């Protein structure tokens, strides 16, 4: 199930199927994922898409124009790109959820002396408590990169039981040219031959 996400208030709805016989324990019978808004310099309208997993434990975001660059040929604001997703997750009463793990992939071309950063932040609307993870990369590097944000059970922030709270996920790429300002360095969350997916894994629990 894959639908292009537009940067409007129109919701993208991914309604999941009934549970299979070997479904994961303590997972709701149905889950609906609505992407309410998507905003940011790394995800212009029509360049991000969402697919929900049939087992109701994950969803994937795919980007096609998420690129940060610095050094020769770059503009003054190109060094930082971000994308914020505002997601409504609907499910039966008696359950709540949090983000247990997020897997990011992309491509990095960093000159000697240049650095790159990927950051993911997660919080529920109206709640001060949240979590974030940062991953740093150093040049020289011209290869695919991968980063995983994994929370311990005690660290997972869950939505309040019995309340509807949208989940906000904000990702960021930064590139610092460092001593390689006369050359171009960049990081992407996409690739030249196919889009790169970012996978978010739910942690469900009963209230």
From TrEMBL:
InterPro entries: DUF4360. Keywords: Signal. The keyword Transferase does not apply. Coiled coil: none annotated. Residues 1-20 form the signal peptide. Pfam families: DUF4360. It comes from the Bacteria. This is DUF4360 domain-containing protein.
């Amino acid at each position: 199930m894959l639908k292009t996400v537009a940067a409007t208030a129109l919701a993208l709805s991914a309604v999941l199927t009934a549970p299979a016989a070997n479904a994961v324990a303590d997972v709701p019978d149905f889950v609906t994922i609505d992407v309410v808004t998507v905003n940011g310099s790394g995800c212009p309208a029509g360049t991000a898409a969402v697919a929900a997993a049939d087992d109701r434990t994950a969803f994937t975001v795919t980007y096609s124009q998420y690129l940060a660059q610095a050094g020769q040929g770059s503009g003054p604001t190109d060094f930082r790109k971000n994308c914020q997703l505002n997601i409504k997750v609907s499910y039966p009463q008696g359950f709540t959820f949090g983000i247990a793990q997020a897997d990011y992939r992309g491509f990095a071309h960093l000159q000697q002396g240049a650095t790159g950063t990927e950051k993911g932040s997660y919080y529920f609307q109206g709640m001060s408590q949240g979590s974030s993870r940062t991953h740093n990369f150093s040049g020289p590097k011209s290869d695919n990169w991968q980063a995983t944000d994994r929370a311990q059970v005690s660290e997972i922030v869950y939505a309040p039981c019995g309340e509807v709270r949208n989940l906000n996920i904000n990702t960021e790429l930064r590139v610092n040219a460092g001593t390689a300002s006369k050359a171009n360095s960049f990081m992407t969350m996409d690739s030249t031959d196919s889009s790169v997916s970012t996978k978010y894994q739910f942690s469900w629990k009963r209230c």
